[in-house]
User: What shape does this take?
Amino acid sequence: MRTTQLLFPTLREDPSDAEVISHKLLMRAGMIRKTAGGIYTYLPLAFRVLKKISQIVREEMDKAGGQEVGLPIVQPRELWDQSGRWQLYGDEMFRLKDRHQRDFCLGPTHEEVITALVDGEVHSYRDLPLLLYQIQDKFRDEIRPRFGLMRGREFIMKDLYSFDVDEDGLDISYRKMYFAYQAIFERIGLDFRVVEADSGAIGGNVSHEFMVLAGSGESVIVYCDQCNYAANVEKAEAVCKMPEDALQCGAYELVASPGVRTVDDVSGFLGIKPERVIKTLIYVADGQPYAVLIRGDRELNEIKLKNHLGATEIFMAPEEMVQEITGVSIGSVGPIGLKIKILADLEIRHMADAVCGANRPEYHLLHVLPERDFKVAEYLDLRNVVAGDPCPHCAGELKATRGIEVGHIFKLGTKYSQAMNAWFLDEDGNKRHYVMGCYGIGISRVMAAAIEQRYDKNGIIWPMSIAPFQAIIVPVNVKDVQQVTYAEQLYRDLIARGVEALLDDREERAGVKFKDADLIGIPLRITVGPKSLQQGKVELKRRWEAEGELIAQSDIIEVIMSEIKKELR
Amino acid sequence: MRTTQLLFPTLREDPSDAEVISHKLLMRAGMIRKTAGGIYTYLPLAFRVLKKISQIVREEMDKAGGQEVGLPIVQPRELWDQSGRWQLYGDEMFRLKDRHQRDFCLGPTHEEVITALVDGEVHSYRDLPLLLYQIQDKFRDEIRPRFGLMRGREFIMKDLYSFDVDEDGLDISYRKMYFAYQAIFERIGLDFRVVEADSGAIGGNVSHEFMVLAGSGESVIVYCDQCNYAANVEKAEAVCKMPEDALQCGAYELVASPGVRTVDDVSGFLGIKPERVIKTLIYVADGQPYAVLIRGDRELNEIKLKNHLGATEIFMAPEEMVQEITGVSIGSVGPIGLKIKILADLEIRHMADAVCGANRPEYHLLHVLPERDFKVAEYLDLRNVVAGDPCPHCAGELKATRGIEVGHIFKLGTKYSQAMNAWFLDEDGNKRHYVMGCYGIGISRVMAAAIEQRYDKNGIIWPMSIAPFQAIIVPVNVKDVQQVTYAEQLYRDLIARGVEALLDDREERAGVKFKDADLIGIPLRITVGPKSLQQGKVELKRRWEAEGELIAQSDIIEVIMSEIKKELR
Assistant: This one.
């Protein structure tokens, strides 16, 4: 293609409303434009990238036995009533009525539609397993759409659903998808990690996230430096390796602590380390109050707490409610004498000579010994893992990094097939619910994540696999007949060899063209300038290298071909 | 692919709610399933066909200089207020509110979004022309969705929009699209005609429809048997070739006509041909009443009338209103003595000794001579053309046929760019509105139309270009090792040669497999049976031929390759 015929309105300045680098660069490279909050138009360069990502995903899904289908965007309420999610989904679901006042939603996901479809068509174990997928726009009415394509309201997803006869079948389907996802992100050429994840509201018990590593990532990932353990911090298992010493100390005693509220206050006032403080948090889970104990230097992981309790909704009690439940304010609560159920993190079991609130305003207790001084209903893994924690699988130590979730695979089990009463007949003629899995990749999010991982101050650095064009030819001066003649010939030769080439035939200064080529991130730039041309050479510059190199005209096509081949793993 | 791994739940019976053949066969071939009224799921076979149609369309759009983009489905009301269509579009537009109660619609078309985009990014005549397109789901809340994919509420469209500096530029863009569309339907291999069409509410004055010829088509097309004139009957020009005789007759006279109401009544009662009767119709256009005269044997074309009047809304006055306007009932109205404006079809000018209503109950007038007996404000082309009419372009005669609209191209002019105040600077630095065109192809409709044109009692007959698979291999007995071994080898060889082959490896009777192969319409069927195998042969049957032929095993691959090549024009 020629730049004079390509719509790519590049910007010199960062748009004011863009917070993250991918949003800034997608805007500046003329790839996306906002149509409404969280709703974007993809311009030609972006559309090329999206097509390439989709094609890689499609090929790997097909290889793994997936069949591509097209499910509707507008979905009738009846299906969502069957699964119970019409109510559950809340404001995040776009809802609408048709002209006959019937309720519909815009598909945020497609478990309901696909389960109903399969239930209608597949009646025998002989027709399973079945892996159906689509690549399509999805809709979620985010309360605060932001970060450009990272959290939009209309976005492109690949979603595959697997249907198996039993858990063993699901294991196989799940593993197929796991490896297909690995293949996809390897082919795209992104640095990523697979982490154990919390499966959240979508149900099921096993789930993995595919995270593209990037400093700007929303999620914290911990991983072992010695084995391949990696997990989302929300899910990562905290190992409690404590000294086996007999735990003892003198009887607890009251100490006045005027104005002391937080763990930092306590440790400062008493001159002790925060890890000797027992933090007492009051939580309400499905209407029931709990005291939750955690070491002063740790963070409570609410998802772990919620999962342990099997609760639908939990929240930390606000000041007034704490007063009502415990009789004192938040900063003075402690476990001794509390009337509500006490849950404690595993580490609490190993504390001695601890400090905690006294349930009396302006006082704390010293020399506290758990189990001697108060009873705990259950010791649980409740804290966030941090870098330096021991690995739960080996003798290694955990490191932390940040990542962007681009793929998520779930074992759903029979959650939907049971709710929607969807079944097949097994070998013995018995009715059985399909055992399901679901597997998503955010196609438009992958594009943004690739940028978050690969950019420099000049712009995007696309991996060859998903670059909108593989090579750009820049004649320095389009009024120089010799340069133009050579550039045009090279352009035609590259196209003929199947290279996705862009010819910058604009009447612009070379500096402007170089800036644009860098900004839009084309992997290979071939500069056709007067000096090198006289020497029978052209300059090849790789986007990720600072300097270009001169290549003989007789070699340039082969060099480009081999460069592309090398990059496309 | 193997049939055991393909979801194609074929049905033996026509579904009860399917009225047209494409709906019946798409359902029976296991290609689509209904999710809600007018909303369908595309199963794997259908999705393959849709991908092929899309790819052909994409290639031709790219060749014509189109750039593919992705525009949002959910569109903010503000854009539609600018064009004035938020009000105009009525109930056919799906509307919704987001969580902040802001108004959005589901894109039924994208003029607004694309005009706003281009207005924001393209400011100079140097960046024009610009041709942007997308292939995407569109939404129209049809009052009565029916005929399967022919009139759905969620359907797939390719829509391209052209932006030019002036009308001459638009002419070029329009012509590019015209030829691209011809290329598309030729490549797909459908029998089609391009017709002049009414551009309706979308605006502009020039428009062509691409019609796939099929007996079940909703539209009547007339075409010349001697030149390439063709037009939608709504638009076709009626030529009035009448004798040049001096028109004369005796003075008109009143005749009692008790119980005579319709043209048929009149001609029966008086024993004259209907073409001697003047039919007087009362119409109301934007609140204004008109008498419209047309020959008794003709049909009024309301669209022509509406366009001539430049009216927004017209309707035929009901009985009560006719009484109020003329003082008599519908069957007695005539032009003589009427107080409202009279419009007449061209043919009325050439009538003499005509019969018409007397504006007096139970009476008619004989020997009526237009212009002598009543004045006509305007003679216009108001009637429907019929087969046998003279061609307006040559000496030929028009024929009539039926067609399905699969493509429609429009010159929009500045309708949208003016309404939305979208402009660029021309060579002289003056603000100018973009001159636009829009060009649509119903991708999912093409799939249905192809079936309406190509089927027999056994099922679909896909053209090679868009067939879900090019060839199907049917081993007669999958328990026969020799057959299976040969079929598997042939399958692998064909795949290796790039043939889209399907292997029917199901444990079913040969009859069932043949029925399914016919039903889903695979162009080439290779049957591997015991007898032919012993002779070193296999049977090749083309879907559109009654009988197969035996081909030597050594030749079969080359025969298949050349057959595919021949079919793919």
Q: What stands out?
A: Chain A has 15 helices and 31 strands. The radius of gyration of chain A is 29 Å.
